[in-house]
Fold each of these.
Amino acid sequence: MANKATVTRSNDTSRRTLTSPLKWAGGKRWIVPTLREHFEPYKGSRLVEPFCGGLSVALGLEPKTALLNDINPLLMGFYKNLKRGLDINLRVKNDEGYYYRMRERLNRHLRAKRFDDPEASALFLALNKSCFNGLVRFSVDKETGVMRFNVPFGKYSSINIPSDLSEYKTALRGWSLSCKDFARLSIRSSDILYLDPPYDHQGTGFTEYAGGKFSWEDQVRLAHWAVSHNVPTIISNHNTPRIRELYRDLGFTLSTVKVRRSIGAKSRKSASEIIATSL
C-alpha cells in the first residue's frame, strides 16, 4: 500500500498542513505557530527563505508566493522534482548492504553533478529515511568540489518511505526555487524575509553547512544583508551571547522559544532559540 505524505492539522481544524517530506536536523515545525503570529500581517507578501532546509516553515505558513533557496544543490533538486511530480519507484530494503549500494548510486549522481535527476531525488529521500538519525550530511572534496553523502546506515526496526508525494506538487505550485548564496537573491520591497541560518555554535568550532562552512563572519554578513533591504524580517538562531548582541545592535526585537533539537534519538532535549524580528 502506498504511504501518503504526512499531514498535520493547524489550529484551524478545517485546514490540513503538510509537514516536511524529509527528516531534518534543526527543522522548524515546532516553532511554526510562533512564526505564524509574526507572518499573519504580511500573509499577502512573498515569503523569502534563503535557508529553506526541510521546508517546514513554508509548508506551515502556506504563503501564496515564495522564493525558497538553499545552497545545497541536491536538496533543491529534490524540491524541483517534488514540484514537477516525483514518483518513488524504489523497492527499499531495511538492509545495511542494500543501504550502502543505494548510497553509492546517489554518490555517482553527485560526482556527475546530476543534482535534479529524478533517481537522485528518490535515492536521497530513501537514504534520508533510513540513514543514522535521519541526518543530511555531506563531505566535499577540496580539490574537485564533489559532494559525497556520507551518513551511515540507521538500523531502524522498519523504514517508511512515502510513495505518494502528489500533495507536495500542489503545495509547491506558485513557489520559486533557487540554489545560490543568500547575498545573490533578489529581494523586493514588498517581501518578508525568514532567515534560519546554520546555528551559531559559539565555542564549539562547529560550522558545517551543506558540506562547507558557515562561519561567524557569515553570520554577521547575513544579519547586515538582511538589515540592508529594510523589509519585514524574522530570524531564528541558537541562543548564544554573541547572536543576542549581533541582532540587538542591529535593532532587532528579541524573544526566545524552546525547541526540540534531536530528530532521531529516543530522548528529545529542549533548547533555547532566539527569534529576532524587525517588522
Amino acid sequence: MAILVTGGAGFVGLNVVEQLLTRDEEVVIFGREPLPVAAARAFAPLSGKLSSIQGDVRDAGALKSVFGNFSIDSLFPLAAITAGPSRESDDTETVLDVNLRGAAVTLRMAREAKVKRIVFPSSISVYGETLNTHGLLREDTTPPVPNSIYGVTKYAGERMALRLKELWGLDLVCARIGSVFGPWERDTGVRDLCGATMQMSLAALRGTHAVLPERLLPRPWIYARDLARGLIVLLDAKSPKYPVYNIGSGLDWAPHMHAWPKLLAGAFPQFSWSVSDKPEEVNIDFRDPKPRGIEDISRISQEFGFSPQFLPEAAFTDYLDWLKRYPDYLDR
C-alpha cells in the first residue's frame, strides 16, 4: 500500500516524503513541480519506494489515475499556494481555486478510492488577528480570525475537510502547522513567504551582508524535521481524540535567532551580518511587525507523546550541515 503526498515536491512535502522513505514506505508524489534533482539524489539511498508524477490537483481525471494506478491507502493533501500580499491582490482567484477547490477534488478522489487515513494540513495562519492578541494559541479556545487570503483558505479548507469527514465518513484529522524552517525550503514559485532563517541562509550562500532588526519580537517556529514527524504521528494515530491538532515547538525562538547568523558566519567567511534599529536598513524580513502567541501543543503531546527533538541549537546545527551538503539548492 502507498501513501500519496500532493504537493510532495514542496517544502513541507519533501520533509514528509524523506521521513516516510526512511521508514521503508511506498510514497507517491503528485503536483505541479518535478522532484528536485537534489532531493532525488538524497532520497535514492533510502529504503522506501518513490514515484513522482506531475499534475494539477484541480484535475480530477489526473488524480483519479493516480489513485487507480497505485494502491493508495493514506493521503497528505499538501498542495497549496502560500500567497504573500502581492499574489493575494493580483491573483486571488487562483489562490482560492488551488487551496480550496484543489483540496475538495483531492478529498473526493480519496473518498472514491476508499483511502484509510487523511492528514489534512491547516495552518497557524488560521488564527490571524488572534496571533497577536493571545499569548497561547489553543485549538479549542483561541478564535480563528484569519486576516490573509492564505489564512482564509486554510481555515475554510479545514472546516470543509471536517464537514466532508462527517458527510462521507472519512478517516481524517487536521493539523494546524506552525511557522516552519529548515531543509528543503526554497522559493518554488508558489511559496511567497519564505522565512527569515532561509533569507539569512541565502545571504550566507551569496556572501552578502544580512541586517536583522535590533529587536526581535516573540516568534514560534518549528524545525521542518520535527513538523514532518508530527504529521506522521497523526498518520499513525489509531483513533485521534480530536479533529484538529496544533503542530509546533511550543517555544519562542526570538531569543535564540542570533545564533543562526553566527553559525553561518563561521561556515561561510564571505558572509557578514549586523542588527539595526532603522527599518530602512533591515533586509531580513520577519513579516508580522507584532509579537505572536505560541501554539499550545498539549493535545498532540499528551495524547501521542510528541515533543520537538530539534530545539534551537540542535536545529541550527542540523540545518547548517544540510546547507553544506546542498549549497546549490536554495540559490537557483
Amino acid sequence: MLAGVFGKKIGMTQMFDTNGSILAITLVKIFYCQISQIKTIDTDGYNAIQLAYSEKEEGDINRPLAGHLKKSVNRIFQKFGEFKVSNPDLYKLEEGFSVDQLSVGQHVKVTGKSIGKGFTGNQKRHNFSRGPMTHGSKNHRLPGSIGAGSTPGRVYPGKKMAGQLGHKKITTKSEIFFVNEQENIIALKGAVPGPKGGKLKILMTS
C-alpha cells in the first residue's frame, strides 16, 4: 500500500487534455524509496513509516547513517522522510516504492519549501496599497501607523510588517496527469511549491 513518495521538481510546461484545453503542468522526477524504519505507537508514540531516498555511494555517508541503513535496507541512501500511516502492520522493511506504483488520476498533496524572496516590504509581502505618488507626498511605500496610541502603548503581536517572504513549507493539492515509467517522471496539474531542483514530498490521498 503506497503512502507516498519523494521527488525532485524539474520545472513547468504545458500539456493538452482530452478536450484540447491547455493545462499548466509541473514535471517531477520520482526517487526510488525504500522503507528504512517502521514506527509504532508502542515504540515511538505514533504510527509512521520512514522512507529512505536519494541513492549515494557508500563512502558518501557517515558511519551512523550507514549503520542505520544496514539494519533496514539493502542500498545506500542519503535522505529520509516520514509518512504517517493508520496501520503499520501493512508495511515491511526494505519494501520499495517507485514511479510504477503511481497512476494517472490519483489525487495527491505536494509539500515543498517555497522560493525565498528575501526581506520585502508590506506592498509585496502583504499586498498593501501604496500611498500617493504625487510630488510632496513623502508616503509612497511606507507602512503607516503601527501602534494604537498611548493605550496599550505597544505594537500588537502579529502585526503585518516588512520581513522575510517565502522559504516556508507549503502544501498544495494536485492530481497526476501523466506518468513516464521509463524516465521516472510524473506530470502534476498546476504549480507546486519550490524552485527547480527542489525536493518534494508527495502524499497519496486517493
Amino acid sequence: MRKLKVLFICTGNSARSQMAEALVNARLGDRWQAFSAGTQPAAQVNPFALRVLADIGIAHQGTPKHLSAFVDQPFDAVITVCDDASENCPLWPGQGRRIHIGFEDPAAVTGSDDDRRAAFETTRDAIIDRLLPAVAALTAPPQPVGK
C-alpha cells in the first residue's frame, strides 16, 4: 500500500512544521510520510522543538527547507500550521488538498528557558491533540450517513 504524503508549511520551518513532520512520521508513519518547509527557512530547527520531541521519545533529524524544494512534488495533503494573523502564513501553489490547522508560535515566547520550553510543550501537545487526529481522519474510510 502506498503511503500518503503530507507537507506541513510555516514561515520559518523551525518549530511547528518540524514538530508536525516528526510527530506524523512517528505516530502515523504506517500510512503517512510527512515533510515540512517554509517560505523563509531558519538556519536550524529550534533546539526547544527537538528537546520536547525527545521528551516523548522522538529523535527528529529535520533541517529547515525552503518551500520551493517541494513545488513539483505531489502531495495528498498540504497543511499550513501558522496561526498568528500578523504572520505571513504561506500559500501552496502545488498539488494536494489544502488545509489550515493553526498553532501559536512557541518561538515567539520570551522569558526563562523554562517558560520557553513550556510553550514548546504546549504546542507539541496541541499538535498531538488536534493535528494528528485530523491527518488520520484524511485516511479514514467514509462514514455512513445517518438513518
